[in-house]
């Protein structure tokens, strides 16, 4: 029993490990000073040091362990402490622990999926509900309990196909570009994410149905507002239309909003007809914080997925072997967004991690 508890603790510790700067969760290094924070590279550790040194606990921990009769620090020790305050110690490789190998049974799934893998509407009949009933009777209780909610048949087949035609037409124009990371642009980006994206406001020519979808999303969130956690939602990003070309590309495990940029709810609409996860891959796998299970979401046609955008929901897009389309919108909490804007405008944000206000670049 004790060994099982230790194994569970290790799994939970692993799920709480993120790069403090960009949120990446693979190949992490542990801070050699406090040994409780993680970074994906030495460069990100250095960039985050100005903020991290305020909470780095090594000095406090050492002081607590010192005998009361021990004499004060020597001049050499004082000099070393001053140097420590200026520079972080080199990170050490983070411990790697095994994860889940299969999704839990439907009854244990983090979002309590029903027969159609739809925790919000177990029979997959959401299109028969008004936006207000769908929001208040399904989405609000599901999100507040699980932090994840799936709604099938969101627009209905006819409207869903119209949105898909808009997206395919957009893709044919060549407007899609390689997805970038919020924190950096580097040659390693393609190793982290392999999608192509474009940002849509909704008023562009040929995007009328995408605008209709965004309006329906807004309706749902408006009816949820004031009931989703402690959030007060007052805005959103543009729609990010994403395509994984089907050549085995995906997106490594990450967090949409690891640094308080204001995004509180991630809202994704999938457009993939006849999707077969066993053949096509492309699952969105969510690792809810504090839970031993993960939730696998198939990117099925006319499916809407909502989840908390912060560190409670690390997730990854597994390699896709067929063309995979999705439209993502992020909704903002008023207070957190105001703080993020103030930090941005005053220059308090660390160089390299500022996000362009009004949009983001983390797909799912």
Automatic annotation (TrEMBL):
Residues 235-333 form the Fe2OG dioxygenase domain. One of its GO terms (molecular function) is zinc ion binding. It catalyses: L-prolyl-[hypoxia-inducible factor alpha subunit] + 2-oxoglutarate + O2 = trans-4-hydroxy-L-prolyl-[hypoxia-inducible factor alpha subunit] + succinate + CO2. The gene is egln1a. It holds the Pfam family 2OG-FeII_Oxy_3. Its main location: nucleus. Its EC number is 1.14.11.29. InterPro entries: HIF_prolyl_hydroxylases, Oxoglu/Fe-dep_dioxygenase_dom, Pro_4_hyd_alph, Pro_4_hyd_alph_FE2OG_OXY, Znf_MYND. Residues 75-90 have a biased composition (Basic and acidic residues). Residues 102-115 have a biased composition (Low complexity). It is found in: Nucleus. It comes from Austrofundulus limnaeus. Residues 63-130 are annotated as: Disordered. GO terms for cellular component: cytoplasm; nucleus. Residues 19-56 form the MYND-type domain. Keywords: Dioxygenase, Iron, Metal-binding, Nucleus, Oxidoreductase, Vitamin C, Zinc, Zinc-finger. Its cofactor is L-ascorbate. Residues 116-130 have a biased composition (Polar residues). Gene3D superfamilies: 6.10.140.2220, q2cbj1_9rhob like domain. This is hypoxia-inducible factor-proline dioxygenase. One of its GO terms (biological process) is cellular response to hypoxia.
